[in-house]
């Protein structure tokens, strides 16, 4: 039997949140930023990638701390 490959996780977080009014990904929910909630819920292993927008430099450190590579759209 062929071994199963780990699942890849891609978090699309490149939106501007213009209707939200503030950086939505930094808005807190249950004591943590929304983006961190998504990163923490992702399965371990496999390729882990977050796609950020060009104005989200603050989020890069958060993504790397959770073991995600970062791409910019």
Descriptive account of the structure:
This protein starts with 8 loop residues before the first strand and ends with a strand. Helices cover 23% and strands 25% of the residues. It has helices at residues 34-41, 57-65; strands at residues 9-13, 28-29, 32-33, 48-52, 69-72. It contains two helices and five strands. It is an alpha/beta fold and 73 residues long. The longest helix is centred in the C-terminal third of the chain and has 9 residues, at 57-65. A hairpin with a 2-residue loop joins strand 2 and strand 3.
Q: In DSSP terms, counting alpha (H) and pi (I) runs of 4 or more, how many helices?
A: 2
Average of per-residue pLDDT values: 87
Q: Specify the structural class.
A: alpha/beta
Low-confidence stretches: none
Assess the beta-strand content as a share of residues. Answer: 15-25%
| Outline | elongated
Secondary-structure element order, as H and E? EEEHEHE
Distance between the termini: 39 Å
In spatial order, strands of the major sheet run 1-4-5
Per-chain topology:
Elements: E1 9-13, E2 28-29, E3 32-33, H1 34-41, E4 48-52, H2 57-65, E5 69-72
Parallel strand pairs: 1-4, 4-5
Antiparallel strand pairs: 2-3
Q: Which short descriptors sum up this protein?
A:
73 residues; alpha/beta; two-stranded antiparallel sheet; 2 helices; 23% helix
Question: TL;DR of this structure?
Answer:
With 73 residues, this protein is an alpha/beta fold.
């Amino acid at each position: 039997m062929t071994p199963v490959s780990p699942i890849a996780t891609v978090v699309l977080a490149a939106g501007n949140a213009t209707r939200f009014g503030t950086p939505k990904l930094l808005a807190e929910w249950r004591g943590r930023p929304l983006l961190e909630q998504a990163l923490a819920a992702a399965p371990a292993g496999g390729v882990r990638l977050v796609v950020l927008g060009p104005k989200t430099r603050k989020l890069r450190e958060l993504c790397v701390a959770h073991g995600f590579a970062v791409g910019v759209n």
